[in-house]
Amino acid sequence: MSWYLTLPLVIPFVASIIAYLLRSSPLGGWVSIIGSGLGLIASIALMAVVLDAGVVAGQMGNWPAPFGITLVADLLSAVMVLITAITGFAVAIYALGDITERQAKLGYHALFQILLAGVTGAFLTGDLFNLYVWFEVMLIASFGLLILNGGKEQIDGGVKYVALNLISTILFLTGIGLLYGMTGTLNFADLALKVEEVENQGLLTVVAMMFMVAFGVKAAVFPLFFWLPAAYHTPSFSVSAVFAGLLTKVGVYALIRMFTMVFDHDIGFTHTVLLWVACFTMVIGVLGAAAQSDFRKILSFHIISQIGYMILGLALMTPLAIVGAVFYLVHHIIVKANLFLIAGIAKRLTGGTDVYQIGGLYKSAPFLAILFLIPAFSLAGFPPLSGFWAKYIIVKATLDLEMWFVAFIALAVGLMTIYSMTKIWAEAFWKPHPGGIEPELKALTNKAAQIIPVAGLAVLTIIIGLNPEPFVIFAERTTEQLLDPTAYIAAVLGVTS
Amino acid sequence: MEQLLSVLIGVLVASSVYLMLARNLLRFLFGLILLSNAANLTIFVAGRLTPGAPPLVPDGLDAPIGDVANALPQALVLTAIVIGFGLFAFALILAFRAYQSLGTLNTDEMRVAEPKEN
């Protein structure tokens, strides 16, 4: 078993145990930071190995694939693990200024580390049933984090979140059972080979649709997204930042993985469904955001609309479109987590999250205003920030296919995104505070812990934006691996030790 | 046997959908546990029902002799039962807390985190 595959998983688990034991002491938060930092180093190491070797795989307990559980990292897995670690590290630092003593005592840091482990595991596993198990690890940790405050709002949002996610989980499980019944295997690489031999291809499409619904709930696509805006605005800001950045993307990752490698037998049907889903998701999300006035609710609906772009990239299924989806995935996690962190700072400075009832941030905290503008403009797709390239590639892919209407929707949704961002800007930053408060950054407790992660993520956005070429080349290599899984299959099934 | 179990799974799913469409959160949860049992049975049936011997490898051999039962679906179902049990326990406690702090189990009345109705 190779250390670079297991370390990104082992570190958060160990950190979570230590953080749990130290939950009553202020050291708990530092354990979380150190754990995430080590996890970041481990995922950079994994990335280096994968960049060098292409695909690496390891068999747990030395049971040869496809019988045992395989951990496998191709470029997509590696970049997702890396971006998870970056987000986790940023949020772990931010938590110092955001998480109250009571929340820490209830085990915030331990649950947070378990959540990171669950997300990382979902990205690294090469086995469908194991993916289900990691989903559950992630889910139970997210349940705990969501209702940690125990207020009425959290319980209310939690009920809806738990209920809809459990249904999706059961659908996923049923799909696993049926797919196993048809192919006799659960290993991704083996599945990619065996699905071609299934006699009844129509039945396979039915199972594919079950997976699409199950992952669609996780990814919050139309019409399955209702749990997201019901829950994401209720927990602590660090919790909603990590949820917004990572949880829905696990669903998107699972969709990309399954619908490029395994379910590519009937693209005409499955990917047309995905195309419609993507268009509706983009439009509904952005319209929902326009109707909201709560900082975090606006951002929550924007998650949905942005998920639409990624699904659009997957639905078009051309190499360029998949490049766009991968690029979008990475860019979106950074930007979205950052915006939620900024919402937290704005709340602490102005005392509210309803943008109509707060204001004055531009005058009194101009630095924060700049930090907001970077991810906000990036989200809307302004050059030269990362979101511009992400949108550009996706729209270019639709134009190459001469899908004018889809391209129009993608561009119009971008325009509407600017509308929402302008609303936040004009209300929360530009206009004077209705209560006459002049919030200053100095007033923050643990100011550095809150500003540094926000600034760090903003710098990443700028770096990707100003220098997109290496990232695009990387996304191209990732796409090659996804569309031609020969290397993946060889790495998984060829390695027996 | 397969047909019989398929009918049973169908009945389980139908009753769970009926329960989950109720407004009462507790009924929803009961529906959920029925549905998860239906999923477990599906995995079990998907692994083919074989009246074979236990899949034990005799001393000195590499493979079991003759027809043996498929052990993998049983392992999957066991895992799924354990995980489902944990999640269900959490969901029950959550429903109890919801009843305590919101004073209702009617999901239509749970609107604290929703936008205000005009």
From TrEMBL, chain A:
This protein's UniProt keywords: Cell membrane, Membrane, Transmembrane, Transmembrane helix
Domain of life: Bacteria
Membrane topology designation: Multi-pass membrane protein
Compartment annotation: Cell membrane; Membrane
Residue intervals passing through the bilayer: 6-22, 29-51, 71-94, 106-125, 131-149, 161-182, 202-225, 237-256, 268-291, 303-322, 367-389, 401-421
InterPro entries for this protein: CPA3_Na-H_Antiporter_D, NADH_UbQ_OxRdtase, ND/Mrp_TM
Gene Ontology CC annotations of this record: plasma membrane
Residue stretches making up the NADH:quinone oxidoreductase/Mrp antiporter transmembrane domain: 126-414
One MF annotation (Gene Ontology) recorded for this entry: NADH dehydrogenase (ubiquinone) activity
GO biological process terms held by the UniProt record: ATP synthesis coupled electron transport
Cell wall biogenesis/degradation recorded as keyword: no
Keyword Transmembrane set for record: yes
Reported function: NDH-1 shuttles electrons from NADH, via FMN and iron-sulfur (Fe-S) centers, to quinones in the respiratory chain. The immediate electron acceptor for the enzyme in this species is believed to be ubiquinone. Couples the redox reaction to proton translocation (for every two electrons transferred, four hydrogen ions are translocated across the cytoplasmic membrane), and thus conserves the redox energy in a proton gradient.
Protein family according to the UniProt entry: Belongs to the CPA3 antiporters (TC 2.A.63) subunit D family.
Protein name: Multisubunit sodium/proton antiporter MrpD subunit
UniProtKB/TrEMBL annotation, chain B:
Topology term for the membrane: Multi-pass membrane protein
Presence of the UniProt keyword Membrane in the record: yes
GO cellular component: plasma membrane
Membrane spanning residue stretches: 6-22, 29-51, 71-96
Cellular compartments annotated: Cell membrane
Signal peptide: none
Presence of the UniProt keyword Transmembrane helix in the record: yes
Coiled coil: none
Keywords: Cell membrane, Membrane, Transmembrane, Transmembrane helix
InterPro entries on file: CPA3_antiporter_subunitC (IPR050601), NUOK/Mnh_C1-like (IPR039428)
Protein family (similarity comment): Belongs to the CPA3 antiporters (TC 2.A.63) subunit C family.
UniProt protein name: Multisubunit sodium/proton antiporter MrpC subunit
Source species: Yoonia maricola
